[in-house]
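## Example pair
The file below holds two records. Each record gives the amino-acid sequence first, followed by its structure token line.
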Amino acid sequence: MAVLLKQAEDKLGNQLFLWQEEKASLLTEAEDRKTSYLPLLREQKQANFKLVDALREAEQKLEWNHVQWQVDRSTLLQTTESLQRTLQEKEKEQDWQKAESAMKSQVEDAESAMKSQVEDAESAMKSQVEDAESAMKSQVEDAESQIPQKSEGWFPKFF
């Protein structure tokens, strides 16, 4: 049994030695891989930092562009409202000008009609005056013709 125990211990020692060699080999391989991956890891970290910086810069630009867009939008809205007010004022002014023109035309038409009526009335009155003068002249002539002529005998008889 001592031999078996010794064989088992030798076998275990052998396996331990093999295991330690494999462990050392694996540790060396791991260290080599770690050494070979460290520069790549550093490059990736730097690339990640650059990406994060680029992302932050892009976010800042996006935020600035958004603020600028809001300012531009606000300015555009104010300009649009101002133009609409100006357009409404122009439309009102045109409406007032049309109304004023229409009223002037109506006044001119009324003045023309009144002038025509006055001229017609003056003409009618002139005609009536002429007719009245003619009638009066005719009546005066008729009255004069009916007045007896002075006779010498008639007047002295009275005195």
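Second record, same layout:
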Amino acid sequence: MTEFGIIESKIPTWLQVYLWLLIGCGVFCLVILYHKFRNSTHWKSTNNLSGWSIPWTDFGLIIWLIFFSVFILQLILSLLLRMPGIDESFTQTWHTVFTGLAMQLGIISSYAYIRKTQPELFLDKINFKPLPLFPAAAIACFIFLASFPTIALTSYFWQNLLFVLQELGLDISLNPQDIVLSMKNAPSFPAIISMILLAIVGAPIVEELVFRGLLYRFLKFRMGKTPAILISAGVFASIHSTLPGFFPLLILGVFLCISYEISGNLKVPILIHAIFNLNSVFLIFSLK
């Protein structure tokens, strides 16, 4: 989810100060990160993460099973919400929550099933090395800050370009993700809390598992680091189905892959993703 660069008539002064502080700290962190890896040989020598050496057919079947599980769970949910006696206002309020929950449960359950029934496919470990929570959180905060200026700047120019193109007559939707609209319009406090939990707890875990833990590692083994980063980040951005958020999420996906490479542990991109979504939720309600 992304809320950067949304064209608002007026942003409160305190929020402007907050954003400029994030950008200032982010530029400092980005400079440090750049100096650490400006030498291409240094980046190439960073090998904290193994690729996923399974055949294309096995990878395709795993992805198919994940999508099929999500489809079945969401279909069952859709049928249940259409049953007689279900109040329409209840369906409208909770539809986004249940849909998101079905997707996350579908991914986790199918992944757990494959790991249990086909352990030979997971000989290449997702986590190259153990990393305690506190160091992982410190790395995550640093890389989130380093990513923030680039994401914010990209979002600002991209969304304003889309706005100009829309004014020129192009049929372009500037609507944010469904969950953003649902959070803004949800009439129920429990529904809002449920959406927030899905965004900052569930989504980071399942999305990082799929896009970094599975897709990126598989592509890295086949293509090398740089193509794998760009392709997995592009798929990650595309799957969110929002044109205004595409390039900001693409940049986020790149930083998530870099953090995974640097740390060798999936905890770090999960925590960065959680911080990013938490910050987006904060901005959503600050601009509501």
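Notes on the second record: Residues 29 and 146 are 5 Å apart (CA to CA). Residues 9-29+130-288 form one domain.
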